[in-house]
């Protein structure tokens, strides 16, 4: 079933302790779409500037991602992020952010996108996320991401959104910030009280936790020593999860857990190279093989 | 099969954001022994001062812990630790440490303890740990714990010990300190290169990782919002793990993983109350029930 994602499309300049890559393709909607494309057809809505390289549109289209919702603003520049990872590869400093055309992004869904069963509102202002939601016709599942900026600066708008979505995906620090709870489990449960039927708390290298009615669980990250670039890991997780759900077309507890596992695994590939490079060289059979390893790892 | 533990026996004064408990029983060997006692007979070797309350000896003896290796130093005082947890219940400040009689502890094994198949060298100076090892007759499995102090101040002695033990249990930050690796997986693998056949890296609220030849895995912590006092969680983990191994009497990969799982679960109970209070009210059937929940949580 078709999966719609609305979010940022960006160029990133990323420094790790050993290497710098300039102006590589990134953004939440892009990482999400690539990850999801292993499982289901994806519809992307975003905005870029005149500096956008059309080869990137072609590359994403070739992955089964419908790019007809990508708006190109004449005279504008694409969202740009420049960051530098610390030697632990978990912490990072943002050196530059230029929102550019993303700053006043007013997403308009192509008519053909309005009927999308699965919808992911990637990180963005809750006001914008709500406007997207209002354009979608009877979706089966709407999941949103958010971040500390919106929790702090558009708190009421975010609370209003949370009453309208089925699921929320956010980082552990964000869950704590949103609820004032310092224990991750308590925070996850408290977020769920704000409206979503389920909440996924991402813990980076430690995996992800799931909270729903009468159900709390954690899935660890797939252990890897080979972390090249963690940028987009969270969006890749969401893409793997939502892509799997769209592929399966059902939302029972068992399918949701399998979707979480697929999110964890797809994210574990994303970090193995810069930008989309690992995904571009990734075969579905590698995901399936790692899934087998992961299942074995968690069985005793 | 009998399980020997040599380590600290202490009185702790513990403050959490909501409560303070003064002079409660603690210490690595005590937490370890209580956790292990659910699975196997335990032999404890440690030292206390004249302030030791003999009721505590009786309580531990009643759990199947052989306390005949507990030395009581006339005129001495028992190891005392005073700590305060931050509101996140993960970070803590040590307010006071008085090693007292533990400061020049020279463990001497009772003759009846020398033939112990399973041996745990709880956190202590690697010189002392080595002296214990020299008193043990052909053990089946020797596992040691260590800490940042010894990694920094008795580095060569620790490296010598690591060539003599089968397993090492340490925290993630300690594994990084010992190896200079900043990625946990890389650090765990590097520790193994120092000698032990297997290494367990404890990640606190995120669970524990296992490293052996051709095998790396992670088991998440059992999710709980009910963290009352994390003191001794790491020793409880080790006690659950070693106790299960001693109960099973075998060391194959499958048994080791089950032992890790039991360590995780037993530690999850330990944090639910101060000192040994949760263990004192814990029934083996509760561990078994949580094991079923944990297995279900990790299956998809």
UniProtKB/TrEMBL annotation, chains A, B:
Q: Which residues form a coiled coil?
A: none
Q: Which residues form the Carbohydrate kinase PfkB domain?
A: 4-273
- Origin species, per record, is Pirellula staleyi (strain ATCC 27377 / DSM 6068 / ICPB 4128) (Pirella staleyi)
Does Kinase appear among the keywords? yes
Keywords, comma-separated and alphabetical: Kinase, Transferase
Q: Which InterPro entries match?
A: Carboh/pur_kinase_PfkB_CS (IPR002173), PfkB_dom (IPR011611), Ribokinase-like (IPR029056)
Which PROSITE patterns does the UniProt entry name for this protein? Answer: PFKB_KINASES_2
A GO molecular-function descriptor: kinase activity
**What's an example GO cellular component term for this entry?**
cytosol
Q: Which Pfam families match?
A: PfkB
The protein here is known as PfkB domain protein
- The answer to whether the entry has keyword Transferase is yes
């Amino acid at each position: 079933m078709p999966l719609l994602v609305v979010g940022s499309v960006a160029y990133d300049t990323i420094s790790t302790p050993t290497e710098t890559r300039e102006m590589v393709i990134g953004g939440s909607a892009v990482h999400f779409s690539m990850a999801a494309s292993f499982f289901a057809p994806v519809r992307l809505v975003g905005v870029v500037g005149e500096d956008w390289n059309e080869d990137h549109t072609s590359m994403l289209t070739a992955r089964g991602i419908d790019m007809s919702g990508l708006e190109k603003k004449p005279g504008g520049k694409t969202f740009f992020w420049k960051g530098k990872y610390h030697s632990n590869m978990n912490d990072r400093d943002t050196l530059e952010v230029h929102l550019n055309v993303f700053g006043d992004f007013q997403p308009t869904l192509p008519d053909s996108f309005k009927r999308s069963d699965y919808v992911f509102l990637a990180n963005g202002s809750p006001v914008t996320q709500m406007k997207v939601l209002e354009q979608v016709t009877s979706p089966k599942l709407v999941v949103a991401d958010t971040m500390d900026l919106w929790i702090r600066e558009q708190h009421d708008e975010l609370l209003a959104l949370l009453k309208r979505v089925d699921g929320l995906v956010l980082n552990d620090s964000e869950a704590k910030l949103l609820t004032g709870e310092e224990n991750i489990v308590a925070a996850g449960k408290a977020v769920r009280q704000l409206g979503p039927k389920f909440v996924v708390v991402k813990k980076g290298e430690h995996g992800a936790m799931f909270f729903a009615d009468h159900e709390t669980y954690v899935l660890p990250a797939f252990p890897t020593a080979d972390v090249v670039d963690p940028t987009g890991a969270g969006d890749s997780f969401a893409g793997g999860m939502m892509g799997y759900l769209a592929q399966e077309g059902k939302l029972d507890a068992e399918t949701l857990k399998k979707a979480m596992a697929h999110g964890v695994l797809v994210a574990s590939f994303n970090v193995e190279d810069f930008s989309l490079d690992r995904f571009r060289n990734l075969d579905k059979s590698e995901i399936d093989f790692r899934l087998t390893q992961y299942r074995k790892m968690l069985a005793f």
